[in-house]
């Protein structure tokens, strides 16, 4: 079977100096892509102590193996400069993998504004700045692939990670919107919630789990999603330790009432079981239009006094 390849494509990977980012960078370079390895070499929590050499190390490893790559040391919040590196060196950008990330785990009770702001800044503002900078190039060439990195903490919540979870869920709405804005330009955007051994997980997971969670097993799904043959867009995926799955929203059939004076909490209470019942007639909404349909149905209902 022919190998999936990326010859002639330019792949930008943020946070490409370590963990998952490094694994992506080496994978795409080994399969023909020209890779921009962005990394400022920061600490796991974004506090001072940068070592920009991490991007250089990855570039050297790629070049030693016969591949093509260039380093960029800007913070993702300066996404324009990262994309500029791709354009300056390779004249184009085809794939953007927003992967850079840090943690500031702390409960809401003890969270300082800075713990919140820095997490939003790196994950959300960083992803926006890189995507916004790549967008005109994607539109012009009528082709682009974006992966934004979420987390199970964002999708489901996780104790002590309100800042990180909020940022990671923000990336879901961000990606679903980019997917809609990019559709007619053949720009595809998806969200990935990975699970992999890295310095971000070493304090959380026991050693045996760290061993099973090789970042290399996240890569195959990303490789498929950003390949020209894949038209998937606006979707959420999980990948880790050889497991891959897609996640979607599910809406219960619910209770539809006429929105007039007769619609009281008593009416809602009487019908609460219907609101939370997923067993019959549930749906999988993909856009705002699906909510508008429900409003129209509500307007068509008879009075709630019954
Ligand atoms: P990692 O710490 O090994 O790598 C992240 C890299 O991003 C580091 O090299 C760091 O220097 C770089 N970085 C941080 N802030 C940056 C900035 N402002 N600009 C440029 N580079 C910056 O972490 P990882 O585990 O490989 O995580 C990669 C991504 O996956 C992150 O977004 C993380 O939140 C997400 N994630 C990881 C896991 C997991 O199990 N490892 C789970 C869920 C989500």
TrEMBL record:
Annotated compartments: Peroxisome
Species assigned in the record: Saxophila tyrrhenica
Domain of life, source organism: Eukaryota
Family as reported in the entry's similarity comment: Belongs to the short-chain dehydrogenases/reductases (SDR) family.
Entry protein name: Ketoreductase domain-containing protein
């Amino acid at each position: 079977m022919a190998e999936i390849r990326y010859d002639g494509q330019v792949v930008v990977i943020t946070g490409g100096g370590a963990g998952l980012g490094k694994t992506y960078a080496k994978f795409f370079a080994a399969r023909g892509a020209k890779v921009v390895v962005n990394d400022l070499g920061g600490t796991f929590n974004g506090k001072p102590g940068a070592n920009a050499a991490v991007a250089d190390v990855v570039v050297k490893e790629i070049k030693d193996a016969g591949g093509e790559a260039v380093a960029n040391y800007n913070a993702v919040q300066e996404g324009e400069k990262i994309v500029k590196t791709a354009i300056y060196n390779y004249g184009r950008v085809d794939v953007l993998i927003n992967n850079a990330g840090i943690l500031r785990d702390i409960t809401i009770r003890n969270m300082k504004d800075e713990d919140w702001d820095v997490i939003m800044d790196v994950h959300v503002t960083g992803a926006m700045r890189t995507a916004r900078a790549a967008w005109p190039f994607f539109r012009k060439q009528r082709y682009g692939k974006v992966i934004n990195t979420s987390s199970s903490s964002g999708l489901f919540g996780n104790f002590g990670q309100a800042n990180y979870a909020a940022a990671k869920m923000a990336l879901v709405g961000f990606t679903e919107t980019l997917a809609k804005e990019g559709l007619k330009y053949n720009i595809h955007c998806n969200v990935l919630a990975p699970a992999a051994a890295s310095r971000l997980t070493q304090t959380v997971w026991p050693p045996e789990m760290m061993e099973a969670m090789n970042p290399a097993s996240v890569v195959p799904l990303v490789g498929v999603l950003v390949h020209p043959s894949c038209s998937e867009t606006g979707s959420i995926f999980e990948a880790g330790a050889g497991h891959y799955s897609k996640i979607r929203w599910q809406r219960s059939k619910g209770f539809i009432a006429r929105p007039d004076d007769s619609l009281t909490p008593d009416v809602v209470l009487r019908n609460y079981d219907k609101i939370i019942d997923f067993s019959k007639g549930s749906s999988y909404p993909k856009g705002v239009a699906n909510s508008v349909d429900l409003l129209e149905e509500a307007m068509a209902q008879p009075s709630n006094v019954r």
